[in-house]
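Handout, page 2. Input:
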Amino acid sequence: MAAAQSGKYDSDEGAVDWESQSDEDGDSDQEDEPMDDSSSTKKKTDSASKEDNDDFAAGELEGLKETAELYKSNIFKLEIDELLNEVAPNFDKHKHLLNALKMIKDIFTNEPDGKEELLVDYVKTMAKRHKITVPMLHASPPQDAKYKFQFQKPSSINVVGGYALKTVTKSKKPFNVDVAVEMPSGLFQEKDHTNNRYFYKRACYLAALTHVIQKAKKGFKLEFSTFNGDAHRPILIVKSSGDKSELDFTKTKCVIRIIPVISADIFPSHRLAPAKNNIRHADAVSEIHRSTPQYNASVLMDTSVTANLAFLYQHSKSCEAFKDAVILGRTWLHQRGLEAGQSGSGFSTFLFAMIMGYLLQGGLASGGRKLSTAHSSYQLLRGTIDFLGSHNFQNEPIMIGTSNHPEFAAERFKENYEVVIVDPTGTVNMAAHMTKSSLDQLQYEAKLAMAYFNDPVDRFDALFLQNVNDPKLRFDNIVSISIPDTKSDQYDDRAAAEFPIYSDFFARSLGSVLKRGLTDRISLIAVQKAGDFSWNIASAPSSTTEGSITIGLVLDPDNSPRVVDQGPDAQNAEACKAFREFWGDKSELRRFKDGSIVESVIWNVPGYEARSLIVQKIVFHLLERHFSILPETIQYWAGQLYPYLHLSKSVPATLFDRQLDVNSFHPVMAAYAELSKALRAADAELPLLISNVYPCDASLRYTSAVLPRARNFDNISSFPTSARYVDVINVIVQLERSSKWPDDIVALQKVKFAFYLKLTEILRKQHAEAVVVDDVANSNEFASPGYMDVYYQGFIFRCHLHVPHEETVLKSIINNKAEADAKKKERVQAALDDYMYRFRHQQLHTYHIQALSLKYPAFSSTVRLVKRWFGAHLLSVLVSDELIELICAHVFLNPQPWAPAVNALTGATRVLAFLASWEWQKTPVIVDIEGEMTASDRDIAYHNFTSLRQRSPHFNQGALFVATAKDLEGTRWSKSTPNKIAVVRMQMLAKASVKALGDAIASGAVKDIKRILITPMEDYHAVIHLKSKRCTRYFENIHAQQAILAKPSKSGLGPERYAGFDPVAEFVDEIRTIYGDTLLLFHDKYGGDKIGLVWDPYTTAPKQWRVAVGLNTVPADMNEHGVLVPADGKKEISKLAAVNFDAILSEIERLGAGLIDSITKHA
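Output:
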């Protein structure tokens, strides 16, 4: 490591040969030589050929074995190889870039030395004569300062960084080509490391280099920027001219960064040790004790650029896979926004590579090496990420090299920096500008990545391909704060010297305060700001960099809704004082049940939704107390969608108690529990015991779009027709098995009905009103004849008796080969399907979805919001509740590349983003809600999906394939609907909604969020406008109008109670039954007062006329006036018949008489 320590290496190790590459517009200089068939005559015997084949097979097997050992799997290796090929630039086609680099080098080396003058005069001259503002982000030098500056030729010029190592990658943003220009030692004096003198001269030297390039007039576009966000170290950005000359490197998609550096021996390194102070004021003797670690590190970083490159270069030579591993690491970091230039994190691919080198050289505390030079790129990447996620940086700083000087002891670094990663010289903390918040982000993502590496399911996409740093999908809460104009009192001269840009200081302070206040309520606080910024060479940069800071919070699902924060014991006076100073008037002394008396902070809020926003209350309080930032000036995204979980504010409070918004599902679950007890109490009077009572409804699995509301049935007539709908809640009452059940299915159904009657009688004795309903609409004598409605505590529970013997009898009839009546078997099969749907599929589905609702706090609200979204866009009658719930479950069970959402806004946004990007035509969704999915099950599901697509290439069946362990066919909830038209519209609307959400969050326009729940109506061929006052569910409409819900003088439905009475749903079903082959219906079942109609393009296209066509038709060539006119380009009238759309609409209008207000037709 001698070369790394000194920073000196041979030209063939560190420098790039700028003149040995080919043109990016041309092909490679050397093409593959054609094979000479004449030189490979076939003289081998059959036995030799067989031996070769055996050797080849053995070698192939050995190769597969090695691949499995070096990589996660063979497929994972193929994916990595493909990724590396995709992201790696073609260095053989960078001739124009190399021409530009050589030209810049020649310009610098041919420039003569300038004259010496006062530095302040040089600054003025550059601005006045050359229109170049010397890039000083820190305080300007005093006007009376006698500092002198003279431009001198660079001592050396080298390409450094990722381009020198060939570890840069292609991305949407141009990659960097770093050029280190070493400033000559004669430019500096002994004490230039103090009071910004070095940085003044460095800025002047950079301005001089800018002027040199400018006057060469080669067409380069020049800007100033900062090096990885370090305000002390401005750099020059050289962009391509775009003039298509030999120096135009536009097609390379990169920028050249000119970085002034110095030799390591210019300043004694111990004078820049972490604890040293190098900003001194003549009238402030005490400040000599205040260290300037950030300032010191920035100076030292300019001395170690080439030394660090040598360190990395040696590892790239000794470890074949090192470069590929760094490229993979760069991709992983970039997708997570962890590069310093993306979010100001202070971390970079350079640090990632240095840590990998550290692990290769054997720098662990135990003395061993975590990585080996024989490792594959996958193993190197995995080992480095594992180290990043598990290493205790606070207690064990990374010391790649060590110095004998006591000022550079590990303890000194720990005392002055939040994160310590010391370079091979043992003197420079390369992570000096990293904050604890940045480290937390890095370690959080590293732990997630290790979980993906260990997952038996391939998570390659989540690791490398997906954009993780999308705030609306990544974080549970998003806080956007404008950088205040008034600087904090803590931002004194010393702080300004350490952090010349106020936003850097402000962001660091924010992270520290919020971390202390939120404690274990959050899993991650990500403070993000603009990383590298650039400015015109003729203007001065802003010292505050106007803009905002984004704080992303990932909440802890268990601790975030905690009501009480306990502080120190009352006897600890010093700790109590600090606690009160931090929390202010929110702190109070309290006695708790265990007898302890402690300082505490109480957040008294009722209900889940309010408790989920406690973190928001804490953030508001801390920002106002410590930074004087008022809540109304903060954009906080967390609970903006909660209002859409409840009835519209237009619904009069006299109709429904708003307390339910707080109690949520508690009333209905309590009523269900009481009903279960009442039913079980009936055992003594029944010939068979009730073995169990199962929930079988969205309301009992916490996922109904609208909260079930208890009604006063004695006062039901006071409700307007538009609020008379009372939902029924399905319950399964299972009877014990018995051999006495009849084997005749018709007789069995009659015995079941008798049980219903008996249960009704028993419940009435318990003062519970119950009625048995004979379902006259069910004409199948083999199916269950009815059900029992129980009016209990303001709810209507619809009880279905489950007799296990019924399934056996139905299957025996179907399997009976002696049964010759095919129509009978069809009816029996229909009865069995109904039985399986109700007593098997729905019951199991309810059980698992209920478990997910209890496991993930945000799952219930997310599902309800997504159902509301489907309803608002008139899709709720085409996509079943169960299918929506499974899609939401998939997003929670497979949240990669994030953790499961803890906030409903984030959860709903992720579901919409999934719907928007789901390639449903060629990708199935497999949801392991049971937690028992095996690899074999997944293979079967994929096979079933492939078979389905082959059978139905036009997606006439099972357009959406969603499989579970109990439904490997994947179409249980989507066999008939939604069809292709509905799915395409769903995806289009999901994309628009995700964009609208992103725009609203980015702009801070909270009111714009409602756009995601407003659907365009002009896309329908016709729209049926219903009479809102006749829609019994209108009160559920999220856009309900108060006038329509006004209390009538006389109820249109009288005092009768109607269970689940929804005339609009009946009307929609009737239209579908009659015209389902002709048109597609869109409707919001949650109180919608419009029905969208779309004519099926396949069935409504003109066809040859025939008798009994089954549709109302007219001649295809008849115009709007009823006259037959040949079509354009035709001489004769065709014999084709077209659907008579007007007549069908008239028939629909007649069917909906009294319910339809009007019908609007669109072109």
